[in-house]
User: Fold this.
Amino acid sequence: MKKTIDTGSLIEDAYRKLKQCMLQQKIVPGQKLLYRELTDLIHMSKTPIVNALNRLEQEGFVVSEPNCGYHLKPLDTKEITDSSEVREALEAKAVHQAIKLGKQTDMAMLEKKLRTLETYPSSMHDKKRFVLNAEFHLQIADISENRVLKYLLKRNFEHIILRVNLDTFASENTFASNQEHRKLLAGLKEGDIAKSVDLVQSHIQKTRDCIIRILKREALAELDTMAFFEEGQRAL
Assistant:
């Protein structure tokens, strides 16, 4: 029995370490995941790493191909759009339930989450800001008392945080985003379901468009880089 528990702990440890590497961009979308490199990176043996990769594949982070091994799944605009639509549905339900079930103490906690987000430096729209943003939205899900909804919403956020280079958000208008959150909080406090649903869905759509712009900028940058090296090869 002890061996089973130890094995499970090793797999969990490998799983967490690989996700930490994704967060820190030590492994990036599209990258082939070689066992030797991963063992050196997280200082663990092959067996728990294989099991962790299988778990990440089930969650949609990793893709495996016969005779090719694993690679970290890249994001595309279709997945971002699909993910945004799911998030809109989840958060519309969360808002509806939060207004029905929310107490004064719940709204006070949501206000606290928003203040924390608002006081984060506006020039730093990085992964930390995205986490603070997610915590505000997850607090609404928490008020709804639907644990499955909160789990699915958290997983939705996780795919963005771990697979998009959010440091490039720095050029976006963080003040406008904070204002949208403030209006949403007001709608929740007023108990206006229709207004709050419209606000949260509009906010999600703007986030979707921003992430798509980031992906397109990165794709163009890659093309420009490749063109530069190809031009250099032709000059030789």
